[in-house]
């Protein structure tokens, strides 16, 4: 249970209830980070708009590269909610979930492409504390994805660092979006 309880629909104002309705429609349930953030409506609004804009803006990188890098951050930081939700998103995108079991051995696993390995290593370097990104690493990423791709990758990794750290601080844990072969949200 989160350290700060979720705002139930019955106690929410009309705008929060409306946002819950759309979240349920899209994800099958109101994401716990959203329901906890509902205690502070301006922060919730910022969070929702930011997530939608970041999703729409991120179209340069191959989907698998971006999603694996974000997932890696969630794993590295131990955010079970982010791992759960990330698996659901990858499942709906038709990505190979079996590879996620090998994420810790991405550097040597034949299941990951060269591009994916570069992005995963970058996710590790950006998530380390202190950050361990090198000039050579960014130069190699730029050769592979271009400047625009490096900016998108950096932004998405940074965004997942924020999500995972907020969720961990508030003890927001996995919500059951995926569990084995079952998935709360039917694939589109």
TrEMBL record:
Spell out the molecular function terms from Gene Ontology: peroxiredoxin activity
Matches recorded under SUPFAM superfamilies = AhpD-like
By its UniProt entry, which InterPro entries does this protein fall under?
A: AhpD-like, CMD-like
Q: What Pfam families does the annotation carry?
A: CMD (PF02627)
The organism's place on the tree of life at top rank = Bacteria
Give start and end of each Carboxymuconolactone decarboxylase-like domain. Answer: 56-124
State the organism of origin. Prauserella cavernicola
Q: What's the protein name?
A: Carboxymuconolactone decarboxylase family protein
């Amino acid at each position: 249970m989160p350290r700060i309880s979720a705002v139930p629909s019955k106690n929410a104002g009309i705008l929060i209830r409306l946002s819950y309705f759309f979240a349920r429609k899209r994800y099958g349930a109101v994401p716990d980070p959203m329901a906890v953030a509902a205690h502070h409506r301006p922060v919730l609004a910022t969070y929702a708009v930011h997530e939608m804009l970041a999703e729409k803006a991120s179209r340069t990188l191959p989907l698998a590269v971006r999603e694996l890098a974000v997932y890696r951050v969630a794993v590295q930081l131990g955010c079970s909610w982010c791992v759960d939700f990330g698996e659901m998103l990858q499942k709906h995108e038709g990505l190979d979930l079996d590879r996620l079991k090998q994420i810790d051995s991405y550097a040597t696993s034949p299941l990951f492409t060269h591009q994916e390995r570069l992005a995963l290593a970058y996710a590790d370097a950006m998530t380390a504390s202190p950050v361990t990104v090198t000039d050579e690493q960014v130069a190699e990423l730029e050769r592979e994805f271009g400047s625009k791709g490096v900016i998108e990758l950096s932004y998405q990794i940074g965004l997942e660092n924020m999500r995972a750290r907020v969720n961990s601080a508030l003890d927001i844990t996995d919500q059951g979006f995926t569990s084995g072969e079952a998935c709360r949200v039917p694939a589109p």
